[in-house]
Every structure is written in structure tokens, then in C-alpha cells.
Specification:
RNA-binding
RNA sequence: AAGAACUUUGGAU
């Protein structure tokens, strides 16, 4: 059962709803985790109607189920439905609160995000990072910086987020300073820095970083190709495209 | 608040 669920989880994470449905049919028995994975697959593919049907046909729910449904509404910006569910579920945890916060984050509603932040019983790294994002999205980089100063702790994701705030403010050198001081680097932080260089016309810096990167991905290559083509060097871009490695 | 598998929330496009 656990192995079936693991498999379901992989496909759910890949947003491969067809595969999840097929596996779901094949499974000899299903438990709440299986149902939650199905729900999550619907949410990830944006099939909100299907998600609601699945949710309603479930025999029981737990925090995972409620939180998945909340996240689905949040991702769609479905404020009314998210609020209604949030008010009516028997229990809420940090994930539930944070999911409600992401709803305001994605729509850039700083004031509503702040209000919710005040109401929240606890603030964790996800909460704080949402506040960084919503301020940055609104161009309120100074506010994002003060949020940053108020944070009790930081991790790679929050560091990458504040780095992007500097980028969006045009402070590339400061962003690079943060990048160099990151606790670790992963594909997202590297891609973010490369994109920043590529999009601001610093093609050489972008390429330099790409060559140092142990984990190259398509996003970085696309950014650099686009920047090269932008410079009018279409031939060169085509040539690079052909030299591109084929991993992921 | 010992160690123990599968599902939910934050960052690059």
C-alpha cells in the first residue's frame, strides 16, 4: 500500500493526472493518503472542478485533505471558496494559514496579507517568505527589506527571495553579494541569478555563472539564449542551442 | 517532548 502511494505521489507531484487516475483504478486498496494524492494531482493540474468532486466524494478528510483543497483554491485565487472552507474545517494548522496567505501573495494584495499575518497564531519561514514575496511583487522592496530584518531565522528559500527583491529593484551587485553568501546553492538560486544577469544585458556574467553550475537546467539556457537573440546575434543563439546539453 | 516509510503551504521562468 505504501509503495502504491509512493508511486501515486510521484505522478501527483509531476501533475500527471492521467497517470494518477490510471494507478488509482489499478490499486487493490486505497486509504486516505491515496485519496489525498489524487486530490493533490487535480489541484496541481488546475482541475479545480474535478478536485472539488473528488473532495466531496471522499469518505473522510484530514488536515492534508483540507489543506490540499485550500491550496487549490488559493492557486486559483478563489477567495470566497477558500474563506468558506477555511472557516468551516474542524481544525487548522500552520499549513492551512499559510495557504490562505499565499492566496493574497499571488494576487499581490499586500494589505490583506498583512491583516492575515497579524491574525495568524504562528509565523514560520513559509509565512515570512510570503510576506517578502508580496511586498516585492508590489515593488515595495524597502518593505521587503524590513520584513527581512524582522525575521527570526532564514533559509535558502528566503535568502533567494530577498536576492530576487534586490534584482527587481535593479540592485544587481547587492544581489550578487547575497548570492555569494548563500548557505547553499540549488538550481533555483542559480537560475535566479543567471536570469537576473541575462535579463539585464549582462550576458557574460550569465554565461560565466552557467559554466560554474553543477546543475544546469533548461530555464538558464532559455534565459541565455533569449538574451543572445535579443542582442541580435541569432546565428550565435542557434549555434548555442545545438551545443546545449540534453539533461532535463 | 528518543528513532520510524506514502499525501498538503513559501523562492528562479
Amino acid at each position: 500500500m505504501v509503495s502504491w502511494n509512493s508511486l501515486l505521489g510521484v505522478h501527483a507531484r509531476n501533475a500527471d493526472l492521467d497517470e494518477v487516475l490510471a494507478l488509482f483504478e489499478l490499486m487493490p486498496e486505497k486509504n486516505l493518503v491515496s485519496w489525498n494524492s489524487l486530490l493533490s494531482a487535480c489541484a496541481r493540474t488546475g482541475e479545480i472542478q474535478v478536485a472539488m468532486q473528488v473532495f466531496e466524494s471522499m469518505a473522510q478528510w484530514d488536515l492534508f485533505s483540507w489543506n490540499t483543497m485550500l491550496a487549490a483554491f488559493a492557486q486559483q485565487g478563489a477567495l470566497e471558496q477558500a474563506n468558506y472552507l477555511f472557516k468551516n474545517i474542524p481544525e487548522r494548522d500552520r499549513v492551512s494559514w499559510n495557504s490562505m496567505l499565499t492566496l493574497h501573495t499571488e494576487s499581490g494584495h499586500v494589505d490583506q496579507a498583512k491583516n492575515l499575518f497579524e491574525e495568524m497564531p504562528q509565523h514560520d519561514l513559509v509565512t515570512w517568505t510570503c510576506m517578502l514575496v508580496v511586498n516585492t511583487q508590489r515593488g515595495l522592496v524597502d518593505d521587503a527589506k524590513s520584513v527581512w530584518m524582522s525575521m527570526p531565522e532564514w533559509d535558502l528559500i528566503s535568502c533567494t527571495t530577498i536576492m530576487c527583491a534586490y534584482v527587481s529593484d535593479g540592485e544587481l551587485k547587492e544581489a550578487r553579494r547575497i548570492f555569494d553568501q548563500l548557505p547553499q546553492r540549488d538550481t533555483v538560486s542559480q537560475s535566479a541569478m543567471i536570469s537576473a544577469y541575462a535579463q539585464s544585458g549582462h550576458l557574460e556574467d550569465a554565461k560565466l555563472l552557467l559554466n560554474e553550475m553543477p546543475l544546469q537546467n533548461l530555464i538558464c539556457w532559455n534565459e541565455i539564449l533569449a538574451a543572445t537573440a535579443q542582442e541580435g546575434r541569432v546565428q550565435r543563439a542557434r549555434q548555442m542551442f545545438e551545443e546545449m546539453p540534453h539533461h532535463d
